[in-house]
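Researcher: I'm preparing a figure for a lab meeting and need a structural model of a single chain. I don't have an experimental structure, so a prediction will have to do for now. The sequence is pasted below. Please return the structure as tokens so I can convert it later.
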Amino acid sequence: MSKEQSIYEQDIQVNPAQLAYWMMPAKNKYAIYSRGTGKSFIVGAEIDENVRIMPRGVTTLTQATYGQALTKTLPSSFKMLEMLGYKKYDSTTKQGDYVVCRKPPEGWYLPYEHLLSYEHCITFSNGHCLYILSQDGNSRGPNADYNITDEALTIDKEQFDQEVAPTNRGNEPIFGKFSKNPVYKHHGNTFLSSMPYENSQKWLLEPAKYYEEERGVHLFDVWNKVVRLQMQLIDAKAAGDRSLFREIWNEVCRLRKTITPFVSKDGTLFILASIFDNLANVGLSYVMNQYGVMDKLTFMIEILNYIVDKIDNCYYNLDERHKYYNATNDSYIQDFAENTDFNWAQLEDAHSLMDADCNPNKPLEIVFDWGSSGSFMEVAQESNYDWNARQDISQKYPGRVVDNTINEFFVHNDESDTMVNALVDKFIHYYRFHVNKMVDFYRDRYGDHRSASSKRTYNEIAIRRLESSGWTVRQFTHRGMEPPQHDKYLLWGFILSEKDERYPIKRFNASKCKHILISMNSTRVKDSQGKFVKDKRSERNASIAPEDATHFGDAVDKRIWTKYGDLLKENAFYVPIRV
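Model: Understood. Here is the structure written out token by token.
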């Protein structure tokens, strides 16, 4: 083969967010990017660079769970690597560049670090090893040269500091400061995440303080101002007001220049990006479509990367004990991965058997909130297992249950059968392998109203769709058109305090139900004639800030009130103290 034939070339277009990240070498990098900005490119590019500049080195890929790595991070990352020419090793042809979770072929270089097992390794032909760490299992890996943490908002930072960080210390004479050709990023970290929305995740934003300390830039204030302007930009586009669109666009560009990313004096890069950084690839029409599909709060956080703080005077007194992140069925996922020879496309098409907190032999509980702007769905299931404490409660609390919110779905509502069916179809597809095809359907009473374009109500359409797909539907209805706000507030006080054993223990799968938690943490409570009620102005006024959005919380309320509201009668004399 001639020299020219041995050269591999591939044109890859990068967006400004990806280019900005890649053109600023840093030892420690924090990329807080919204959906649609190309985070998978960054993980793939980091792996590729480490393979090339640290042959026979070790990069750890740290995730909350092993299943999360196999189903979320690795499939999209290796799509990018395959664009660069990487091929999985074929034992028949003896050709390929990497092997997954098995010992490398005879004749390949091995890592400098002696590995006792390759069960959690992706090894490349030049000896570089991508070692998968999971905080629910093998979180103590070999001595490493670099660490990548994707979905960083789901990890336990304290556990990371105790178990992963100390292992980032390998091969100092080879790649480090004692080497003849030291690698600048050696012993560094890359943290990638969508926008944190809980206080326990805010450590991801702390590194950004160097913007103000070194250049006097108030990064977060300016960024949120940009996001609000981008919302106005979308409204101007929808209204066809070209002059206003141009004026806002120019102001957004001006503000973005004032927060141009840079590397700190100690080698840290903190960078924010949103869908507007990827307009050349996705187009403004995609942004407009997502704006129509999503509720306002979800759109601002997921697409525009809006920075959210938990509000004061919150209607729900949620804290860390009510949430859990790690409930992937890793043993099933690993078996599935091995049986498909680590087929990334099949691993990416997630379903409920990959969720350890979903019992396939028990019915599921579902509830909808049918709204004028969007429709929202909660999926729940009772169990005797507390996924936060990681313990069975049946011995300690006989007869008490754990009420687990395990999933969420939402769609834009266009007042037609199509969107109702689209929402139900998301549920049907995800739970396609669920054995016990029975649902407890908690009716949204507003869903009993007929839309102008249909002879059937939303509830009737949804039930018919479920039944036509083989699901048995048991229906439950709460009293009144809408659960009373003050009584719901008291009910949530009893449940979340966890002091009265007649009430369930409430848990939320925080990695699956992100928007439910954002909605609940962002719902204000106000006093109305001596009673506590939700501040629901955001549902009536598009100009109200998204922190007030309440739709997903309303869906959860309906099911909880229908199941447990009668218990309040026994406690009518007592107002619970907020814990």
